[in-house]
Amino acid sequence: MPTETNAIQEDTMGRFEGKVAVVTGAGAGIGKACALAIAREGGRVVVADIDGSAATACTAQIAAEAGHSLALAIDIAEAQAVAALFDIAERHFSAVDLLVNNAGAMHLTPRDRAILDLDLAVWDQTMATNLRGTLLCCRQAIPGMIARGGGAIVNMSSCQGLSGDTALTSYAASKAAMNMLSASLATQYGHAQIRCNAVAPGLIMTERLLAKLDECMQRHLRRHQLLPRVGRPEDVAALVAFLLSEDAAFITGQVVCIDGGMLAHVPTYADGGNSRAARPSGETAEAAALQRC
Ligand SMILES: NC(=O)c1ccc[n+]([C@@H]2O[C@H](COP(=O)([O-])OP(=O)(O)OC[C@H]3O[C@@H](n4cnc5c(N)ncnc54)[C@H](O)[C@@H]3O)[C@@H](O)[C@H]2O)c1
After folding, report:
1. Active site residues
2. What's 9's DSSP letter?
3. Distances in whole angstroms, Cα of residue 55 to Cα of each of 14, 72, 130
4. Superfamily of domain 4-262
5. Given 140, 225, 272, 290, which is the most exposed site by the fewest CB atoms within 10 A?
6. Where exactly are the structural domains of the chain?
7. Is 88 helix (H, G, I), strand (E, B) or coil?
8. Which pLDDT tens digit goes with each residue over 252-269?
9. Ligand 1 centroid vs 108 CA: distance in angstroms?
10. Ligand 1 neighbours by CB, cut-off 6 Å
11. Which of 82-86, 116-120, 238-242, 268-272 has the lowest mean pLDDT?
12. Spacing, Cα 103 to ligand 1 middle (Å)
């Protein structure tokens, strides 16, 4: 059952005043940060997550900040559930103006392996959530957006969708396909004032990711960011809010990386440079630590 939080304060003005947003996977991590960012700027947010209690916890936090939201437990890979989500959103608030397709499945190795070792069930499940789920939500949102004269969609992709890897084959393929789905949507519905962009985060330290990655792996990943700090869910939420807002009114069909510079350099060359010369930041010491991992 949906649970609604208290009404937004009169004095809360922001870029999403009067707008209704659906954020999938908003019970935790990046999605939760996006839901909070939208609500803080006056948007009414449908917090959709397969984990109903996580969704409710997010709406409680929005309520504590005097925002307006609705929690729904839903698996975005299920067509009927997605149709019900948009139906409830429209009846409870009004037609959806903004959509963040954030819910995603990632099976860290050893499950999502190299192509010859890949379990097809992992491939199917990853595609069902990341690609089919995104498509289903877009298909439900577009007609209402057309009727209301426009809308904005952000699809949560990944740097993994822009470069090859030794594993995470299904995940990377699903994210690359999401990039093209975003471009197709932008191309097909731009005339109806619907904008669609993909956001490709690098390493973003959510609670769940922290629990999954050992210290050695975290150090290894941090080493190939150019900025000397970890990425935070709030960093991604700020970009998503920008792309959803009128500040980005002429931006559509793009894949925007937010990775601390991870994809801006070639690790092969950078590692070679590190082994030749010490750098004031102390990266050489980190490189030595990496060797010991
Ligand atoms: N954290 C990162 O470093 C990172 C990097 C690149 C891309 N991403 C992408 O960002 C998105 C969010 O990642 P996160 O790290 O915040 O994840 P997270 O695990 O912290 O949160 C994901 C949320 O989505 C929900 N969810 C999962 N499957 C669902 C489904 N089928 N239907 C509805 N809800 C579902 C989960 O219950 C969870 O609350 C994902 O699409 C992920 O691929 C994350």
Report:
1. 171
2. P
3. 23, 7, 19
4. NAD(P)-binding Rossmann-like Domain (3.40.50.720)
5. 272
6. 4-262
7. helix
8. 999 999 999 999 998 888
9. 13
10. 24-25, 27-31, 49-51, 54, 74-77, 102-106, 129, 133, 156, 158, 201, 203-204, 206, 208-209
11. 268-272
12. 5
